[in-house]
């Protein structure tokens, strides 16, 4: 997945003149992300669920689409769009939730809009993508209800990039699975 056209492209960007890092620098940042407690926990939970996370499971690449990373049988982190460790950590966490969902579900079908929407809802909710300070940095200022509004906005971006989901189907799928998927915090006891 080195392009935004992949059906399960994940983390989107808020580019502000961002030039990114070299693949080598990004790969070093990925290695440092493995020390993040949430990353460690998610990787342990995948292993416990029977899904091996090998040495090349997370890798830095140069991306052509405007995405920060993605998941397709492995995680890609777009070195050319990320500059700081926190950005890499966020991408790795978001994409690990997709990987965990696929591991746990066994029959997750990325061409099914509802399946894709559910994993995006979970990744947005459980990764901290929509934390108030992140939204503030993106220029979205809302005191009440910002998290769910942010998740909904960010869920639709990758769904619109999924060739199997029309705009209407994407919105309908998100709304149909919202309550179940938003409240599903596995493998966490509650949203971190």
From TrEMBL:
<dbReference type="GO" id="GO:0006508">
    <property type="term" value="P:proteolysis"/>
</dbReference>
<dbReference type="InterPro" id="IPR019165">
    <property type="entry name" value="Peptidase_M76_ATP23"/>
</dbReference>
<keyword id="KW-0482">Metalloprotease</keyword>
<keyword id="KW-0378">Hydrolase</keyword>
<keyword id="KW-0645">Protease</keyword>
<dbReference type="GO" id="GO:0046872">
    <property type="term" value="F:metal ion binding"/>
</dbReference>
<protein>
    <recommendedName>
        <fullName>Mitochondrial inner membrane protease ATP23</fullName>
        <ecNumber>3.4.24.-</ecNumber>
    </recommendedName>
</protein>
<dbReference type="Pfam" id="PF09768">
    <property type="entry name" value="Peptidase_M76"/>
</dbReference>
<comment type="similarity">
    <text>Belongs to the peptidase M76 family.</text>
</comment>
<keyword id="KW-0479">Metal-binding</keyword>
<dbReference type="GO" id="GO:0004222">
    <property type="term" value="F:metalloendopeptidase activity"/>
</dbReference>
């Amino acid at each position: 997945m080195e392009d935004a056209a992949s059906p399960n492209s994940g983390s989107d960007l808020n580019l502000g003149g961002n030039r990114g890092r070299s693949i080598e620098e990004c790969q070093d940042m990925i290695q440092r992300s493995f020390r993040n407690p949430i990353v460690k926990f998610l990787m342990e939970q995948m292993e416990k669920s029977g899904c091996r996370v090998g040495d090349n499971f997370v890798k830095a690449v140069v991306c052509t689409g405007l995405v920060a990373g993605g998941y397709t049988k492995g995680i890609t982190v777009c070195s050319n769009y990320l500059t700081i460790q926190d950005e890499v950590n966020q991408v790795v966490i978001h994409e690990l939730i997709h990987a965990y969902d696929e591991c746990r579900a066994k029959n997750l079908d990325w061409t099914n809009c509802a399946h894709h929407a559910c994993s995006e809802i979970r990744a947005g909710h459980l990764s901290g993508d929509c934390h108030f300070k992140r939204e503030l940095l993106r220029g979205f200022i809302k005191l009440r209800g910002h998290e769910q509004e942010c998740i909904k906005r960010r869920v639709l971006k990758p769904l619109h990039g999924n060739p199997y989901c029309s705009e209407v189907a994407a919105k309908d799928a998100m709304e149909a699975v919202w309550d179940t998927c938003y409240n599903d915090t596995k493998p966490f006891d509650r949203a971190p």
